[in-house]
């Protein structure tokens, strides 16, 4: 299955989410609407709302509430992107200038707050305390993950366990919350809900690990962001952590200095070291392991096109180049 085959399973419902997104962006403040529309229309994959719809479709219950939950998830995700780009001083996302590059930091942060608020308004309309519990907890974990990542910037002593904790919070948590909240909205059994929760978590980890690889072996035009952003910001991602643990002392020292310094002055040398020590291959292997675990957690779902699409999504997450 390719991504177009996956989307075909929920074509009508996906269109309904898009329509609801634009309906809910309405604001009496024109700049709010302008910035919010810009960021949600900038070509994202919308994998997280797709997970909600596909989970509901797997149980033949992809109704208006599932569409609303998918929209909530997309708004939460978009809010985090607006805030992240300000924190990271990013100037490009999805091949376009970031909102903060176009309008400044203050409007970007405030529109992110608007999207969070609108998401919680819609969440209340679902009238599901389990869903509210999952998503309110998730937003706290995501914020903690972002702060933890911030404290790790320019710190070459971050180990693999600490790094996996960071990416669970900042990336995998919303994947996990998407499938888990959908399961609770459908009132599935605890066993099914927990399996879907774990599927989302492992998929999110795989997705972020591949992002880490692509930051060193992708190209800016394909990725839609600047290659080497992580190194430029002094972020110790898994390819660097692995390389420091396995490279000769001089090479490990160079990476440590590059992380402490930030910037791209040592990019070519860092690339050589992570390649020579199999660090990109190691990170992809870890992503493959997460994708395999994700697929195993789908065993409790009834056989359907949606179940096959969720399996295929795990494979696509680790085979992509964007």
Automatic annotation (TrEMBL):
Keywords: Magnesium, Metal-binding, Transferase
Broad EC category: transferase
Cofactor: Mg(2+)
Keyword Transmembrane attributed: no
Keyword rRNA processing set for record: no
Family annotation (InterPro entries): Isoprenoid_synthase_dom_sf, Polyprenyl_synt, Polyprenyl_synt_CS
Entry protein name: Polyprenyl synthetase family protein
């Amino acid at each position: 299955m390719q991504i177009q085959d996956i989307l075909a399973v929920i074509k009508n419902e996906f269109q309904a989410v898009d329509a609801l997104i634009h309906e809910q962006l309405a604001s009496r403040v024109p700049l709010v609407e302008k910035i919010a529309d810009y960021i949600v229309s900038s070509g994202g994959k919308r994998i997280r709302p797709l997970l909600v719809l596909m989970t509901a479709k797997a149980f033949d219950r992809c109704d208006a509430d599932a569409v609303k939950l998918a929209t909530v998830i997309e708004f939460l995700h978009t809010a985090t992107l607006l805030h992240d780009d300000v924190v990271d001083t990013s100037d490009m996302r999805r091949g376009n200038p970031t909102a903060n590059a176009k309008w400044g930091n203050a409007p970007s942060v405030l529109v992110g707050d608007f999207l969070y608020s609108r998401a919680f308004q819609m969440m209340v309309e679902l009238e599901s305390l389990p869903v509210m519990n999952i998503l309110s907890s998730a937003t706290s974990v995501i914020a903690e993950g972002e702060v933890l990542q911030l404290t790790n910037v320019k710190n070459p002593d971050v180990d693999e366990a600490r790094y996996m904790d960071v990416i669970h919070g900042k990336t995998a948590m919303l994947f996990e919350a998407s499938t888990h909240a959908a399961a609770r909205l459908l009132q599935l059994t605890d066993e099914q809900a927990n399996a879907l929760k774990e599927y989302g978590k492992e998929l999110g980890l795989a997705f972020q690990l591949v992002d880490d690889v692509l930051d060193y072996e992708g190209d800016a035009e394909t990725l839609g962001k600047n290659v080497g952003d992580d190194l430029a910001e002094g972020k110790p991602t898994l390819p660097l952590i692995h390389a420091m643990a396995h490279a000769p002392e001089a090479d490990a020292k160079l990476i440590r200095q590059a992380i402490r310094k930030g910037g791209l002055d040592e990019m070519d040398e860092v690339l050589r070291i992570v390649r020579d020590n199999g660090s990109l291959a190691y990170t992809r292997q870890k992503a493959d392991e997460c994708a395999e675990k994700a697929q195993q957690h789908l065993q409790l779902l009834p056989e359907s096109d949606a179940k096959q699409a969720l399996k295929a999504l795990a494979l696509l997450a680790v085979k992509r180049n964007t």
